[in-house]
Amino acid sequence: MRIQPKKIMCAVDFSDFSHLILSYGRALAAEFHAKLYVCHVLHDMVMLSSHGQAYIVSEKIAQERLDDTKVLLENLVKEQRMEAQIIVSQGHAADELTQIVQEKDIDLVIAATHGGSGIKRFLIGSVTDRLVKTLTCPLLVLYAKEDHPAFPNVFRVPLERILVGCDFSPESDLAFEYGLSLAQEFQAELHLVHVIKPEKHIELATTDYMKIQEGDYLGWTQSEFLTLQQKATDDEWERRSRLLSRIERQLAHMVPEESRDWCTPIINLLEGKAYSELIHYAKIKEVDMIVLGIHGHGLLEQFLVGSTTDRVIGRSGCPVLAVRKLPIP
């Protein structure tokens, strides 16, 4: 299944990184012959009276803000030499963007994150964090650095190496479909990576072996104990080797035969925490985009611990495409 977005929306906030978002939007829209939208959401404006009382601004002032913002967006689009439909809305940014996506039937949203971690991110979050949980279409998150080039004069996204995180879930399968489609469109390398949770090897003392083995242990020698310990280690590695071989075969079989004429998948098995291993691999291999599925965890679990996709988005130095498998109505 080849995936080709037909409607792409850039969500900009007039920060210094808006040009980066627009550059990606322009390039992807040209590559897929898609219609491009540029959107900005104004926060509801509350003013204070001389007595310190809060009141909502008048409809006239609100409309003037919307008109002025539309002009700013039009000028920004002209600077990028783009053709795009301008959308200006007012309200909570993530909720408004989610509603616009549904109304316009958008296929892909492009936004940026400034990154961050720790208590500030935990308490405050960001519009991008919220979009990951509410959008019904894929979200491409660009990591905005202070010295990040916006390449405003480049009309093709530098996409030579694509990494897909594969855990064989339905969300992961959808991420693979997107990664494969992008690799085909851009003739890019396709890296399929599965991260295995580390297994702690527990070495048992002689008395522990005696407790779990049957028989009379009075005649045991040190060599017999070492032989038993080595056998346990060998059995563990043999079992692990069989598991790794099966995972490698599964990853290799994901790529259809008809796609192998232009795509040779690069398969890697890593061990550790999924988000940190994926980020490290992407950095070492100079990956241009990470594609991940969004799992439908409960709200409390997401709030307390986050997810692999959330953490990769917050810490990755390269763009992350997050895709969600929608429930069957």
CATH architecture of the largest domain: 3-Layer(aba) Sandwich
Largest sheet: 10 strands, mixed
**What does the overall shape look like?**
elongated
Tell me the β content. Answer: 15-25%
Description:
By secondary structure, the protein is α/β, with parallel strands linked by helices. Helices cover 44% and strands 20% of the residues. The protein folds into 2 domains: 149 residues, Rossmann fold (3-Layer(aba) Sandwich), CATH 3.40.50.620; 171 residues, HUPs (Rossmann fold, 3-Layer(aba) Sandwich), CATH 3.40.50. The strands form 2 sheets. The chain has a 10-stranded mixed sheet with strand order 5-2-1-6-7-12-11-8-9-10, sandwiched between helices. The chain has a two-stranded antiparallel ribbon with strand order 3-4. The longest helix is centred in the C-terminal third of the chain and has 32 residues. About 6% of the residues have low confidence.
Could you provide a short overview of the structure?
The chain is α/β, with parallel strands linked by helices. 44% of the residues lie in helices and 20% in strands.
Topology overview:
Layout: E1 7-11, H1 18-32, E2 35-42, E3 46-48, E4 54-56, H2 59-79, E5 85-90, H3 93-104, E6 108-113, H4 118-124, H5 127-134, E7 139-143, E8 161-165, H6 170-186, E9 189-196, H7 206-212, H8 222-253, E10 266-271, H9 274-284, E11 289-294, H10 299-305, H11 308-315, E12 320-324
Parallel strand pairs: 1-2, 1-6, 2-5, 6-7, 8-9, 8-11, 9-10, 11-12
Antiparallel strand pairs: 3-4, 7-12
Helix pairs in contact: 3-5, 9-11
